[in-house]
Model the fold of this input.
Amino acid sequence: MSIFEYNGSALVAMVGKNCFAIASDRRLGVQLQTIATDFQRIFKIHDKLFLGLSGLGSDAQTLHQRLVFRHKLYQLREERDMKPETFASLVSAILYEKRFGPYFCQPVIAGLGDDDKPFICTMDSIGAKELAKDFVVAGTASESLYGACESMFKPDMDHEELFETVSQALLSSVDRDCLSGWGGHVYVVTPTEVTERILKGRMD
Amino acid sequence: MECVFGMVGKGFALVVADTSAVNSILVHKSNEDKIMVLDSHKLMGASGEAGDRAQFTEYVQKNVSLYQFRNGIPLTTKAAANFMRGELATALRKNPYMVNIVLAGYDKETGPSLYFIDYIATLHKVDKAAFGYGSYFSLAMMDRHYRPDMTVDEAIHLADQCIEEIRSRLVVAPQNFVIKIVDKDGAREHSWRRTTKD
Done:
């Protein structure tokens, strides 16, 4: 089994009208065994920037700690929050530093940039950025997620419709993947507020 | 076939481990204590490679004591768990410790807590945890019977049910088990479950 599939994960981020949603599954497993059903994969960097980390749980935790550290330093020096585009470049650089001994993670970055324009991107485990205007996916359920998102996505959805779309796409995709699932965790971020919701899906 | 498992109850946390020290087909001893008492209110049940287990648990215990000496206050359970995860993560890409840990602790402010730390340094706060082949039986038993606010007697009864299950269903089941508990009065050994004397 690939090291990327050791813990199991599913991540998706989608763009709406002046808002974005980022969602993950909640399973933490060790190959075939489920350890916990409340594992956190999405982390808030600041009010308008969220980072999701799929892949090996240990490297996701290490990477998250390193990135929070770097962002806090940035905040102290620049006296402002990092723009999502800048943060994506930082993540890419940190991943490529370990080019010949990589972190086994696939990050998904979602944020509101200048003028609250939504920004999403994903990258592979060595930092190859993939910007998208509509949605990005990562994790063991990524193939199913591509299909579900492609068919369910519409441009310029408002935050309620976006939440419904992201939730349906996530739940239907993880139901076809044995290594991810056990519920969902969805953040919908608009310029004024952040809504966090837990989804109840098939618990198997 | 090492078995370690633990659970959180009402105001306490419990860790159970087998006590066999095995080398291939030979059982060296069956009273090996694999649950280290880190400080007054922390228990660390460890399973895995014997040398790594002994070295890593002692290393962690000494560092936890050092922190208390230097700073005058003990580490919280969460801090100790994150320290362990950091050490495992740093060693992972050089010379990994093949040790899986169940950390149980009691803090005055937050109450009892249990942490699952596997050898790849994945850390997660849980209500019940288990490692080894025995985990297939003990986790299933705990999933069925565990409730969040069990009393000590109920938790011990559940631990006994898990041990019974391991003994009857695991092909090379360990002979003896030790149960340790941590609550507001501290971390201490609770009891043994023996089938052989050593």
Remarks:
- Chain B has a mean pLDDT of 95.
